[in-house]
Design a protein that fits this description.
With 160 residues, the protein is α+β, with helices and mostly antiparallel strands. It has one domain. The protein has six helices and four strands, in the order ααββαββααα. The model has no long low-confidence stretch (mean pLDDT 84).
């Protein structure tokens, strides 16, 4: 049997065979339509739980980033040189003398009806004094320095 060619010399399929195959496929689908049962699964609760957990994990990572960078920033020791000591100046990170401030940096993650929040702080009174009164901010300054990284952590693509 000779195959047909079009005007450009290319082989073409027999239109009758093509139509019959399409017609047969439609008939098979139509025959199954009454026997198959439609089922809808609703996964929105699972998706919302996964997104919520992912957001909590992201806030946890961002909070730990700020805490670890804060600890790193306040780890420069006070320098004792003979009878003089070199301490931090206003605008610098506070220097470590007893390292108690560095050891007491903590993180807390809270989830409530408004969302998930991360907190970084210290229970030491002089941490508040350094932060607010002596112009040796270490928590706010670290947060501002890490703002771009925190934004990437919180808004990056969700991965499984």
């Amino acid at each position: 049997m000779a195959r047909q060619r079009d005007a450009k010399g290319r082989f073409v399929a027999d239109p009758n065979k093509q139509q019959k195959a399409t017609f047969d496929a439609h008939q098979r689908r139509a025959g199954r339509a009454g026997t198959r049962q439609q089922e809808i699964d609703w996964y929105i609760d699972d998706v919302l739980a996964k997104i919520s957990m992912t957001l909590r994990q992201r806030v946890m990572i961002a909070t730990e980033l700020v805490a670890s960078e804060t600890v790193r920033n306040i780890s420069i020791p006070v320098v004792y040189s003979g009878s003089t000591e070199i301490r931090s100046k206003p605008g610098e990170y506070p220097r470590a003398d007893t390292t108690l401030l560095r050891k007491t940096i903590f993180t807390t993650i809270k989830t409530d009806r408004f969302g998930t929040s991360g907190y970084v702080g210290t229970p030491q009174d002089y941490g508040v004094i350094l932060e607010l009164k002596m112009n040796r901010s270490f928590l706010r300054r670290t947060l501002n320095e890490q703002r771009k990284r925190i934004y990437r952590i919180l808004t990056g693509p969700i991965r499984r």
